[in-house]
Amino acid sequence: MKKMNVESFNLDHTKVAAPYIRLAGTSEGEHGDVIYKYDIRFCQPNKEHMDMPALHSIEHLMAENIRNHHDRVVDLSPMGCQTGFYLSVLNDDDKNGIENVMEKTLNDVLEAKEVPACNEVQCGWAASHSLEGAKEIAQKMLADRNEWGTVFAE
Ligand SMILES: [Zn+2]
Prior knowledge:
The chain has helices spanning 52-65, 95-111, 131-143, and strands at residues 20-28, 34-41, 73-78, 84-90. By secondary structure, it is an alpha+beta fold. It has a four-stranded antiparallel sheet, covered by helices on one side. Bound molecules: zinc ion.
């Protein structure tokens, strides 16, 4: 297959074993700072996906809470295929550390009483949320915590 510009377009999605956390790419600035982009895959590609309201709510919850556990988060955003998220952090190539940060962040989701910023002032589709669904996603991801380090099926 022709090599494409987007890193994940060169990933064989039939070979991965979700859930996992994978370093998807790096970008280095002229002063040596490096942005590390992680593929946080919750669902097995083309077998399962997250429903939009639940995905949207877990996005809000993780985006807000992860910054309590890591002080160099650039971005955390959902994939359009609804199977995972991209997490970009500055100067942090410690994948085990990222796994621990994700574990803490997902535990915050389980304990949440409400979805932060789910109103028409702070969000672009405030009607599309599910706290219950977000918790189900977090629960499922945490249940497979010991598999996050394995990206490819044996
Ligand atoms: Zn929103």
